[in-house]
Amino acid sequence: MKKTNPAIQFKSATGAMLLRIAPVFLLLGTWSYSCQHPFFWDTVQLASRQAQWYYDQNFHYLLLPDVIDSGHPSGFGMYLALCWQVFGQNLLVSHVAMLPWLGLLLAGLFRLGRIVDQPWGKFLPLLMVLDPVVLGQCSLVSPDVVLMALFMWGLIGIMGQRRILLVFCCLGLALISLRGMMAVVVLYLYQVFSTPDQAWRKPRHWLRSALPYVPSGIFALAFLLYHTYEKTWIGFHEDSPWRESFNLVGFKGMLKNMVILIWRLLDYGRVFVVLGALVLIFTQKKLLLSNRFLPLLVIALLLQLPHFLLLQGVSAHRYLLPVFLALHLLFLGLLNQSELRSKAKSVLLATALLGLASGNLWIYPRGIAQGWDSTPAHWPHFTLRKELIQYLDQQKIPLSEVGTVFPEIGPLHWRDLNGRQDGFSPLDLEQNQYVYYSSAMNDFSDEQLEVLFQKWPRILEVKQAGLETILFKKPQ
């Protein structure tokens, strides 16, 4: 008879039910709370502005204008524009458009949790939903939610040998973004290297494994060739707003980027998951090499290294979502394999869960940039922003006189879908009469902050839950 693990045997059906419904309520509660939030961070460009183009042009053009074209396939923008055409253009419709993908994400977590060796696999949905990057992205109208859901179901297709499912997931990933195409490569390599008996040494195995990926590969190649033919560039062009992010760095820059990558991996409470995995490996060193999810983690991480290390500003938390999934799967797999006492395992899991939960509230001191789209800690920004705009309207101060930085530059309609074409101007301390500062912005330099806080009077200052918004007025 198989020995049970008493530490995770629930004393009642109620406990088991709570474990199943907690991730559902957490994710749907997040959606409900944020379903009127404006577009934020990169979703202004990757969702709102791209969808606006297709909405205004009635899908007449396939490729986007250069000012909002970052080289990605724009399947998500088309999807959102179609939702607007059918149901109306507003924030609620935009967030409702995310519900099918959130449902797919949740269903994938529960299915994948059952595939992971039991009994610890059942904790995967809660572990993933508590991850601040997942929860932060799920509160936005974000293509990365689609990417995460499709990547997860692609894994399920591999593990369940469901080729048709894998084909459609890979096609969906290729339609979303260049990183979606990269996720397809991760799935393919994982399928190649996760088979037993070192089948990856045989060329026939590589070819046979590639069959489900052919449709998405054909689409990706066709899109890249067509885009290059029409635009003569991929990813960025000389006048691109994000051109500087693709500048190559030197040796010191690579070292700095390596530190940033490690920080991203440990950030927002994930350090407790990593430490838990290291404890399990240290107590039984053979665990790591026999874990079925180690190849997934290594492959996903290695494919991120080139642009993370070599480029100046391509280091967002959300780029690592497949890595985070692989890390959580690895951790739970190690729990299953370890011969530690069940109480010790329970302590490691509880520490990881509580650490991730605390990460949703982490806010760094002023001057330290953080990924605000990758944490629910950005939510108070919208209340403070609304209060500032109301103040400016009441005082009859034109928004064009107020300078600021990403992500609030440009017409309010890009964020609020309210028809207002007035908006904040790019920061210029010589020209701006006012400056809008929020701690949920990273693009103020240390020198600019020093000038603002020491020399410019504050005419509005509001704070909430660790965030602050300040309206500065140019000194006379």
TrEMBL record:
Q: Which UniProt keywords apply?
A: Membrane, Transmembrane, Transmembrane helix
For this UniProt entry, which segments traverse the membrane?
12-33, 92-112, 133-158, 164-190, 210-229, 261-281, 293-310, 316-335, 347-364
Protein name per UniProt: Glycosyltransferase RgtA/B/C/D-like domain-containing protein
